[in-house]
Amino acid sequence: MIDPLSEVIGLLRPQAVFTKGISGAGRWGVRYADFGHPGFAAVIEGSCRLAVDGQEELTLEAGDFVLLPTTPGFTMSGFEPVLPELIDPHAMAKSDTEVRHGRQDGPPSVRLLGGYFIFGSSDTDILIALLPEQIHVRGVERLSILVKLLIEEAAQQRAGRDLVLTRLVEILLVEALRLTQALDAPTGLLRGLSDERLAEAIRQMHADPSHRWTMAQLAKKAALSRSAFFDRFTRNVGMPPMEYLLAWRMAMAKDLLRHHDMDIAAVAERVGYGSASTFSTAFSRHVGQPPGRYTRSSGQ
Asked: How many Å apart are CA 130 and CA 125, to the nearest integer?
């Protein structure tokens, strides 16, 4: 069975993992500016506060895992009032040494593994828009095991390290995302996939993107009327069904043009267009440049 979530993660191509230890003690607080790259943190021991811009404040405890697909600005602190120290995340990212906030001696009140990675896809905007802005998972042993493996692998320079780190991050992403898949999840792909009827239509789009889908056909797959399907899909996924299908086709097309040795006609057929010219027109309108130029600008 086609798994749309795994396909989205696959197209994002997470890679280049960077991790470091973070700890805090006494009265401490830090304010990180917007970073842009996906970031994560796993609490090893102790507890602290985390307030991500636009999200509810969290109290993080040992065993918690937080994933921020775009890492907007955030404040992390202990539990005593303090004026946060301003930190440039890009400068901090260049250091691979453990970071200690607050009192420098004595045992810490919290220890975390913080990290970030780079998405290799050139089309992250539409894919990231399908994911929650903040993912918080508590007390899941499978995630704890994955984070432990990630820590061990990142700390060593063994053969195959980069490949193992990339695969671990892919698995970590899928695990964290599917654990937050629920009807009350934020608008996006996870919420759509938690709706059994919408999930079937989404799976069909991913299973056969070259099919010339109509609204009526997709609504039938979901066992809903066209109007009910349109409203339900738009409300849960955050965009109309045919807009989602177009976005997915274009994300696939960009990936095929950038990473695979396929000519424009073959790509057009793979993503549901009857001719290279029709595809080129749609691609140019969506991406802002024709597919040939896009391929050349991508270094192919």
From this structure: 9
Contact 44, 122 (CB under 8 A): no
Nearest CA among 270, 293, 296, 202 for reference residue 242 = 202
The pLDDT of residue 123 is 63
296: amino acid identity, one letter: R
Instruction: State how far the Cα of 171 lies from the Cα of 165, in Å rounded to an integer.
Output: 10
Where do the structural domains in the chain lie, given as residue ranges?
4-179, 189-297
Pairing of strands 58-61, 39-52: antiparallel
SS3 264: helix
pLDDT tens-place string over residues 220-275: 999 999 999 999 999 999 899 999 999 899 988 988 888 777 889 999 999 999 89
Are 84 and 29 in contact by the 8 Å Cβ rule? The answer is yes
* String of DSSP letters for 110-176: EEEEEEEEEE--S-HHHHHTTS-S-EEEES-HHHHHHHHHHHHHHT---TTHHHHHHHHHHHHHHHH
Give the bridge partners for 99, in sequence order. 22
Write out the CATH class of domain 189-297.
Answer: mainly alpha
Helix (H, G, I), strand (E, B) or coil at 59: strand
Spatial distance between the Cα atoms of 101 and 25, rounded to a whole number of angstroms = 7
The per-type count for the chain, helices as H runs and strands as E runs, is 13, 10
Structure-token pair, residue 144: 């704890």
Structure tokens belonging to residue 31 = 């304010």
Tell me the pTM: 0.73
CATH number of this structure's domain 4-179: 2.60.120.280
Residues 6+ apart with CB under 8 A from 180: 132, 135, 136, 137, 190
Q: Which amino acid is located at 38 in the chain? A: P
What token pair was written down for 237? 């996924």
